């Protein structure tokens, strides 16, 4: 079975609203092994909606439309669907009565006349009651495809996925006997191109269709997906994971899609019986904030200081003012001194230091915006990295915190337990 998704709403064409409904629908299709052949987004334009409906109905077995079923003048999905498939529209008075009773029970007022638009039904369509809202869903057969019209309110759409779409899929496909198995490898602070080169053997053996590389600031994810009968896809995915582990080595910090790098580092610190303190300048406490997002972080994270000024670097961390004057606050000696200073002054096993130019101002020819020095101090000494990140202020700050966490992970990977040092 092949599916397509059409999201309707002029607000989705701007910058303030994301089409998250398509993700929920995609997840439902994945559970039943339905191949998604396409997604599109159109504004509240009757001609555009009708054109997309015809296009997707010609290439997919099921089309789900979200949005445009409200009571206002710009809610034109019903009219567009009727036009696309040469159908008429009429008011379902029984549904109007149901809306009237429901509206009065919730608000204690009469149903506005404009809400009658929501009871417009396309000829030949099945009306599907929406218990979480007033606009009903509709299902119509077009000859080549089944088309569902769902409201765009996420809470309402989620309810209709469970009560309407999934039972329809289950009736035709069974209990996801031909679904999709997935795996993810999350890698920090490495260029996408480097990861692509590393996993080339995976392409040679398994092809490119089931392998996707997704890059974001400070992180690259390698996604594996396999379709087919359950036993076959499980065996194939296991082989793909084994191959990826071989070529990626220990670059991946987790194979759990929901696990963050700060959670991994926290688990490693706890397992080692080690503690951590942080000294931050350009990141302004972001690293400490990320560490304390993790439940139970008090077991290993003692705290941190934000030493934005040179004076506080000296007074709180013991950084030599002469070194700052000679090398500048954004430099290797200062990053090293921050990491070691916070470790020794606050009696932790590990210390992390970050200093840099986050921008958009403050850069120079020698130290342009994005220049960051990070250091990790531990029982075995101090490790340092100088990098230049690309992006705006927030992306630079995020990548700096990500790099320190990755350095901590690699340091802990190599280190013995603190109690054994």
Give the strand order, joined by hyphens, for the main sheet.
Answer: 2-1-3-8-7-6
Number of separate structural domains: 3
Shape: elongated
CATH topology of the largest domain: Molybdenum Cofactor Biosythetic Enzyme, Chain A
N-end to C-end Cα span: 59 Å
| Radius of gyration using CA atoms only | 28 Å
- CATH homologous superfamily (4th level) name of the largest domain: MoaB/Mog-like domain
CATH architecture of the largest domain: 3-Layer(aba) Sandwich
Q: Which strand-content bin applies to the residues?
A: 15-25%
Q: What is the mean pLDDT? A: 94
Poorly predicted sequence stretches spanning 5 or more consecutive residues: none
Q: How is the biggest beta sheet arranged?
A: 6 strands, mixed
CATH top level of the largest domain? Answer: Alpha Beta
Q: Strand tally, please?
A: 17
Structural class: alpha/beta
What does this structure look like?
This protein is an alpha/beta fold and 421 residues long. It folds into three domains: 2-173, Molybdenum Cofactor Biosythetic Enzyme, Chain A (3-Layer(aba) Sandwich); 180-254, Alpha-Beta Plaits (2-Layer Sandwich), CATH 3.30.70; 261-420, CinA-like (Maf protein, Alpha-Beta Complex), CATH 3.90.950.20. The protein has helices spanning 21-31, 46-59, 77-84, 93-107, 154-173, 192-198, 200-206, 230-248, 261-272, 286-291, 310-317, 321-327, 332-345, 393-414; strands spanning 2-8, 35-42, 62-66, 89-91, 120-122, 126-128, 137-141, 146-150, 180-188, 211-216, 219-227, 252-254, 276-280, 301-306, 350-356, 371-378, 381-388. Strands 2-1-3-8-7-6 form a six-stranded mixed sheet, sandwiched between helices. Helix 1 (21-31) runs parallel beside helix 5, helix 2 packs across helix 3 and helix 9 (261-272) runs parallel beside helix 14 (393-414). The termini are far apart. The mean pLDDT is 94.
């Amino acid at each position: 079975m092949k599916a397509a998704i059409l999201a309707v709403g002029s607000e989705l064409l701007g910058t303030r609203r994301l089409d998250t409904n398509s993700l929920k629908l995609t997840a439902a299709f994945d559970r039943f092994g339905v191949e998604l052949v396409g997604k599109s987004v159109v504004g509240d334009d009757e001609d555009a909606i009708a054109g997309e409906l015809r296009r997707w109905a010609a290439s997919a077995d099921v089309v789900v439309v979200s949005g445009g079923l409200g009571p206002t003048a710009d809610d034109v999905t019903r009219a567009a669907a009727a036009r696309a498939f040469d159908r008429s529209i009429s008011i379902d008075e029984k549904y109007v009565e149901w809306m009237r009773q429901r509206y009065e029970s919730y608000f204690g007022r009469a149903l506005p006349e404009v809400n009658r638009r929501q009871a417009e039904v396309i000829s030949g369509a099945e009306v599907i009651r929406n218990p979480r809202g007033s606009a009903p869903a509709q299902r119509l057969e077009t000859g080549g495809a089944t088309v569902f019209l769902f409201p765009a309110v996420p809470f309402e759409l989620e309810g209709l996925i469970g009560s309407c779409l999934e039972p329809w899929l289950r009736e035709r496909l069974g209990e996801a006997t031909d679904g999709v198995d997935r795996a993810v490898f999350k890698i920090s602070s490495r260029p996408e191109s480097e990861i692509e080169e590393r996993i080339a053997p995976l392409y040679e053996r398994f092809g490119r269709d089931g392998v996707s590389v997704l890059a974001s600031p400070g992180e690259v994810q390698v996604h594996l997906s396999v379709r087919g009968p359950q036993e076959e896809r499980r065996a194939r995915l296991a082989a793909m994971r084994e191959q990826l582990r071989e070529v990626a080595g220990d670059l991946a910090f987790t194979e759990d899609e929901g696990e963050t790098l700060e959670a991994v580092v926290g688990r490693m610190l706890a397992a080692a019986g080690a503690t951590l303190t942080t000294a931050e300048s350009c990141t302004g406490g972001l690293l400490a904030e990320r560490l304390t997002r993790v439940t139970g972080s008090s077991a290993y994270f003692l705290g941190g200081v934000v030493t934005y000024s040179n004076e506080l670097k000296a007074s709180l961390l013991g950084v030599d003012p002469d070194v700052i004057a000679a090398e500048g606050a954004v430099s290797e000696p200062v990053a090293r001194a921050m990491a070691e200073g916070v470790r020794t002054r606050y009696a932790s096993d590990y210390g992390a230091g970050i200093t840099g130019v986050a921008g958009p101002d403050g850069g120079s020819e020698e130290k342009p915006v994005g220049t960051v020095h990070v250091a990790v101090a531990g029982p075995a000494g101090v490790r340092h990295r100088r990098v230049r990140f690309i992006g705006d202020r927030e992306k630079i700050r995020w990548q700096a915190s990500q790099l320190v966490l990755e350095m901590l992970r690699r340091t802990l990977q190599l280190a013995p337990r603190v109690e054994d040092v």
